[in-house]
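Annotators were shown the component list below and the corresponding predicted structure, then asked to write short factual statements about the assembly.
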Amino acid sequence: MTKEHILVVEDEEDIRELIAYNLEREGYRVTQVESGEEAISQALEAEPQLILLDLMLPGLSGLDVCRELRARPETADIPIVILSARGEESDVVTGLELGADDYMTKPFSPRELVARLRAVSRRGRHGVSDDREIVSIHDVRIDKARHEVSLGGKPLKLTLSEFLILELLARHPDRVFTRNRIIEALRGDDYPVTDRSVDVHMVGLRKKLGPAGRHIETVRGVGYRMKR
Ligand code: CA
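Structure shown to annotators:
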């Protein structure tokens, strides 16, 4: 079996070494680089299966790297997990909107990191084109074709927006969606959707879900996700 290859981009040596050590111990092959410029050249040259990308880098920032990698056809599909420090939520939002797949806030435990990377590589970048007609998670069952949702076997009456938001989150558990991503998913509704109305729909949706609403998590400063 060939080892999954991960490119770790982090200028702080201690953190980078620690990440590499833990990933290697889990059976990954790791390439370490310390700048955005090297990240791009290594991504092109070594074709890693996943990139762990620190946001705060000297020279090209993590966001610049993210934008550049998504713009190039050779690297557009490589999953990217952003590493951020606390307080960088707005950069995380930008990163996710530039096409990063997930993010982790430092400090994190090696175990948490490995679990997250496994989830990201499992769903890949094409997990988005999921065409399941029935999505089940926790006690919630979503029937796309019939446009029906049930909770513990009992039908639930949702508005179209609530239905679309729930479907989006439930199809991609553990994935954080920024408000803009949610707004994109709601387009087609015949009224303009704003950041604020996403929050309003979320309140309505959680209320209707009752105790199951706790599975939808507000990720402060970033967006929403449904926990697995
Ligand atoms: Ca850094």
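Statements collected:
1. The chain has two domains: 5-123, 134-226.
2. The radius of gyration is 19 Å.
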